[in-house]
Specification:
21 helices; Xaa-Pro dipeptidyl-peptidase (chains A, B); aminopeptidase activity (chains A, B); alpha+beta; homodimer; aminopeptidase (chains A, B); 11-stranded mixed sheet; 6-stranded antiparallel sheet; Rossmann fold; 32 strands
Chain lengths: 798, 798
């Protein structure tokens, strides 16, 4: 195991002593103790299950202090604590295993190998023991949490539940502690009134908001809110979505300029509900429990947890619009309420107002995918009170989710999905059959308007997609942004986060990015990185204004290595000027020296019917055939083997000159790491089911980690891109194209951050139909690539 | 979805009224209500999140009562309740989805299709509404729990937490209700003194016992205990186990009679610890939380939950012995303590006694695999107090786990594992490095003795395995037995449970068996069967003596169909006399008409090196090649296609006459269902992660179900067997064998309960090396099968 911690704040000795005193490790008496006595004193404070003399005795006899002696034996011999003793005992406290993780004769070796934070001083003075113990409390155990959090999950902080509200929250090393009793959390519901009437019933849409807050808020403690806008969390209509999924067995056709379809519009509501009274007490409780485990972790640490599914979901009004401005407004309506700028009611009928009186007005948003997307959308409004978002695998423009360069494009794994399908899938008002009965016809009508407006016929960028592009508003962002994205996410693709990252470069807000090796997943329960601590440090700073220097302590960009497991490195830039490399496409493969040539290569998109059907049914079979076989439906270009390891960063750009045998066509490209190696498994490995406790007798999470596959593979696709040959200049505008016409184009592939191991080759594969993402026409179209005018650029190669 | 409920107890109207009154549905006032009024009254009682008028109004408007009208509209029109209205509203209460699970115009159709318990009466009288509502509370929701449990998870029973201890527990329909507050559970530890000294330190081995009991036990309530003996639950030594795993790349050799190895022995301890005092208060609490979700479910329903890892585990004394009589004695020591027959101490040193004063003395055991094995072992001692065991995927003889008919045999998926490996893996005293340090040498010495005694050289049955065979003691069983086993469990194989089932036939105890389509898994969170209710009914009867007729209500044998998902049928026998069918092996395949013939077929066990290596690395590749290709290393026999569906039950028996080209050899056989069909996925599909709540704000489980694979497969292996040709008469005794000698033998294959679909064929494949389970010698050995004297019998074919 290798530990990677980024969220340990360097603090002064004064602060260490204050915090250790707060936790009961130090008091008036401890000043008198020698270094060794102080060490035993600290150890004794970790006897939680049995603090009696017998329990202490059991601990001393069960713990090894040298390769030969137990702690009990060392103590009997009055041996002074040494660095080795401290480390050996610490390894046991951190749940590392003798003979597996460490050799008891050499604890210092394990300490380095596991990458535990280095002890700086000799341990002969009490001050050094204090330093070392403080650092140990910040250090991660084998089970993926800090030692202080591990102690917490064993009940260490339970006595602090009794502290008066005015003395809470508590922070340790800049991060909030779990000093709020989970059994006393208050769960309640309010209905926020929006300025929308998306279901055209003449009434402003009310949206249901679920709140979890500590009991201390009833005693005057005002706290910030962590808000997750999740269109999924009131249920989904999977069968309906499946039924609505579009066929991708369609042919691409020639596009002529035509009028853009209308986009659906909603009435502007005129009057607010009148207020029939006010209260500070909610009426409805909530049975549904928070499901994002990161939020569960925060819920006992001084953050209110807010969920809202928004318009068009169960118990709320309105329609699901899949990313429209109305959905953004509904999303920020909750923030406005939390910030005292908007009304909410206790129920849907009585018009009794209730404010978020318990809230400090500071809000963060969390969540992955659609949830992170709404967080991003909210941030681009510049809404007051939103201090930060942690957007994971988030969309910044829906066009790039369901379209690409004038093509209909499916998110990886979901051929035929589109905006209307997702709207239907998340329209959970179906879950209340009586409510649904009354809006069914109107919503179906809306879905049809939406289907016309999104325009699968041309795949062009239009007003529908312009409405769902948040990037032009990045300039309005006031919140600090933490982004998380999987380098293998083919669902929400890498250009979604790269655009946001780039757009934030010159804004006066902090930006942080974590790139991991997963697909479309959460990473808050990974063993090798202290992501939860990172979030805690960040939110303690942004929402509680703790002066923990989070902006400086946390690197701007943390990227997980794809070759060596459990390796995370930090940098400050995704692309670094001056490090670009260019390869020409040649009949010998990718070559760095440019050669003038009239050579060309061709491929034809049509397949025998059998093969076409196999590929359609099993895109993974197509994928392997595409990049590993000599075939007529693609052409492959490879570099020679590289002698040294390379780090490839940024947005690869492909310039191609080509002709096509008909008056329409699409060019697709994949960038491939060729080389036989044991690569990471696609999905993380479960290390410990429900093994990560998020508090004391509170929710749990599954501890996970990326591990190497048992068997080697021959390649890994690291990037890709697609373009309609009639959208060479813009996805919004149609270019002419005639059969045999020679055209040039530049195609940006998905951004990369890839470690290409020595001995591997970089490959580029050009083809047309992508069985994972595009339509499948199986048409006899020949593409001829003019090699002399075709090349690939990677902006940063180190 | 299809619902299968076996645990609904038919009860009298009197009992229904009493129980509904207890739950607050009925009171003095309700006598006056009409049928329709009573229905609304019941519905109103399910308003848990918002019981106000507004909440009730929201419910009425959100619920559909006819295909066109909401409940609010029907109520305004004063429509009387009809059966259709009751069913339509009930479908919504049970979380079924409009247009997906039911057509609102035909709720009765969905009711039948989903297999919800039939409403018997017209609903025009209050008595009929009471009947229907009572039954509805017993009926399962779409989310795999009874409606009363679904209400429970929303807080319905919270007011009953306040009942005095003397009025608890409460039962509904013969099953215990969750009326114990999970936040008030007491977690404590004691150390039971055994009569063993397996680590030879001169002291009786103490074993750690973890207890979870409701707070009401402190107020005089004595309750029964559900005890799980889990050698795993203090941690495992995976790396050590891997290192100790034996090589299977070894050749089978000729066996000559030889002396049996000695078995390890332990000293008999002479004196007990003296008692230094007594207490009723435990000293140590436990941080570790119960991990078997079935136990979590029971923990809030009036059952104390007990875990003990036993000898040789963290915080206990002694050695891990892998199933020896000592381990059985340590296992029942806990029951003896719970039953007042044995001493325990508050800690390991002070010798302060503590009794299980809160326990009624009635004990059940639960758990799967090794856990279920120890439950089985405990039951065969006839120990007082053990009223029942629920043994899942349990071993009844360790010989059949690690050996078979004179062969070393791996549990499926674990080639090279053996008793010594498992002992090392579960010896969690390693987790206390100081404790481990002092017993390391002695335990290693014991492991070596064990390795000699288990005798991988011959694979014969000997005293080591005799000690670990619980079947001769089945006759001592006093407890009622519920068994659960996966029909695809190749780890703990089907003959383990069949032997126990058969052995119990004539004993004066109740026996119940559930056979499911899983491998080596738990089934308590499956949607299509009410397994948790079955257990609740069973334990309420066995431990609380509730007169719920569990023995009669529950079928003796419930088996899951392997063709149609969500189909469970009940029967009372595994094998039914008079239904045997026999097939002769012929050159035309398996034929029912016996023919005199001197035909023979041959196969040779040697493979080309490449193929041998591929098969060794990837046993699944071998498996497919074995049964689907014409090859020289096996011979296949198939029946013609069957015209009708067949149910194949019991232990298939293969009689073979053969010669082998050398003086040693092993014959292996697989029974195969041939036919192209979409079969069940190997593992259950997760329907709802953490979607099954086991109480109110309490632990959760993942809702699962077996679903059909997306793609058809061509075969499924349904049984198998292996035999050493030198153990034709007994696994304990060596037969002579010379090259070319003709021998006859009978091989029992693993028991089956298999639905062979019409159009499929039954196949028998004979071969030698099993890359999944046997050693792999890759030796040129030719086997010649004499067809005229070879046949297959299946004892029950219907």
């Amino acid at each position: 195991m290798k530990n990677n911690q980024f969220a340990i704040q360097p603090v002064s000795t004064h602060q260490k002593i204050a915090e250790l005193t707060q936790l009961g490790f130090l008091d008036d008496q401890t000043d008198q103790l020698t270094a060794t006595e102080l060490w035993y004193h600290f150890l004794r404070h970790t006897m939680l299950e049995n603090p009696s003399e017998a329990g202490w005795h059991a601990f001393l006899t069960q713990t090894l202090a040298t390769s030969d002696l137990t702690l009990a034996e060392c103590r009997a011999q009055q041996r002074p604590v040494s660095r080795h003793m401290f480390q050996l005992v610490a390894l046991q406290l951190l749940a590392f295993e003798v003979d597996v993780d460490y050799d008891p004769a050499h604890p210092d070796v394990a300490w380095r190998t596991i990458q535990l934070p280095a002890l700086e001083h000799a341990l002969d003075q009490p001050a050094a023991i204090i330093d070392a113990w403080y650092l140990l409390l910040c250090t991660h155990t084998k089970n993926g949490q800090s030692f202080i959090d591990a102690l917490t999950s064993r009940g260490f902080l339970v006595p602090l539940y009794q502290l008066p509200a005015t003395q809470k929250p508590l922070f340790f090393n800049g991060k909030a502690l779990a000093v709020f009793d989970p059994t006393q959390l208050i769960n309640e519901v309010v209905y926020v009134e929006t300025d929308l009437d998306t279901d055209s019933d003449g009434q402003r849409d009310l949206i249901k908001v679920e709140i979890t807050r500590p009991a201390e808020t009833n005693d005057g403690l005002q706290i910030p809110a962590v808000y997750t806008a999740s269109p999924y969390n009131q249920g989904t209509n999977d069968a309906w979505g499946e039924k609505m999924t579009h066929s991708v067995a369609t042919k691409l056709t020639h596009k002529d300029p035509q009028q853009q379809p209308d986009i659906p519009a909603f009435p502007t509501p005129t009057s607010h509900r009148s207020t029939q009274g006010e209260t500070t007490t909610a009426e409805e409780t909530v049975h549904h429990q928070a499901t994002y485990t990161l939020n569960n972790y925060l819920a006992v640490r001084g953050f209110a947890i807010i969920y809202s599914a928004g318009i068009g979901t169960k118990d709320s009004d309105g329609f699901q619009t899949c990313g429209s401005p109305e959905q953004t407004l509904a999303t920020i309506a909750v923030i406005e309420w939390l910030n005292g700028q908007r009304r909410a009611f206790t129920n849907r009928t009585d018009q009794i107002e209730i404010s978020a009186w318990w809230c400090s007005g500071n809000v963060a948003m969390t969540g992955r995918s659609y949830l992170g997307t709404l967080a991003t959308a909210a941030a681009t409004t510049g809404v007051t009170g939103l201090k930060t978002i942690i957007s994971e695998a988030a969309i910044s423009s829906w066009y790039d989710y369901y379209r690409e360069n004038g093509l209909v494009m499916a998110p990886g794994g979901f051929p035929g999905e589109d905006a209307d399908v997702l709207a239907a899938e998340t329209f959970s008002r179906t879950k209340n059959a009586g409510d649904y009965h009354h809006v069914q016809a109107a919503f179906n009508d809306y879905l049809q308007q939406m289907a016309r407006a999104m325009d699968r016929a041309t795949g062009n960028y239009n007003d529908f997609w312009r409405q769902r592009n948040y990037r032009p508003n990045i300039k309005n962002i006031q919140a600090d942004i933490m982004m998380v994205h999987g380098l293998n996410d083919w669902n929400v693709k890498l250009n979604q986060v790269k655009s946001l990252w780039d757009g934030l470069a010159d804004l006066p807000v902090a930006r942080k990015l974590v790139l991991h090796q997963g697909q479309h997943i959460y990473i808050n329960a990974f063993r090798s990185i202290d992501f939860t601590d990172i979030v805690n440090l960040w939110l303690s700073n942004k929402l509680w204004q703790v002066d923990n220097h989070a902006n400086d302590v946390l690197p701007d960009l943390i990227a997980q290595d794809n070759v060596v497991p459990e390796t995370w490195t930090s940098t400050d830039q995704w692309e670094q000027p001056g490090h670009a490399r260019q390869w020409q496409l040649t009949t010998d493969g990718l070559r760095e020296r440019a050669v003038a040539t009239t050579d060309s290569v061709t491929f034809n998109d049509q397949l025998p019917v059998d093969q076409f059907q196999t590929f359609s049914r099993q895109p993974t079979v197509w994928q392997t055939a595409l990049v590993t076989t000599n075939n007529a439906f693609s052409c492959q270009f490879k570099t020679p083997q590289f002698k040294d390891d390379l780090l490839l960063q940024g947005t690869p750009e492909l310039t191609v000159s080509l002709t096509v045998s008909v008056d329409h066509g699409m060019l697709s490209a994949q960038l491939v790491d060729y080389g036989t190696a044991r690569r990471f498994n696609v999905s993380p490995t479960m290390l410990n089911r429900q093994g990560l406790e998020l508090g004391y007798h509170w929710q749990k999470d599954d501890l996970r980690e990326f591990t190497l596959a048992d068997r080697p593979s021959d390649y890994h696709v690291i990037s890709f891109g697609h373009i309609n040959l009639q959208n060479r200049h813009s996805s919004a505008q149609i270019d002419a194209l005639a059969a045999g016409q020679r055209v040039a184009l530049t195609l940006k592939l998905q951004p990369i951050f890839h470690h290409l191991a020595a001995g591997h080759r970089l490959g580029l594969v050009l083809f047309s139909t992508d069985f994972g993402m595009t339509v499948r026409g199986n048409e006899a179209i020949t593409y001829r690539i003019e090699l002399g005018e075709s090349h690939l650029v990677i902006p940063t190669v180190r």
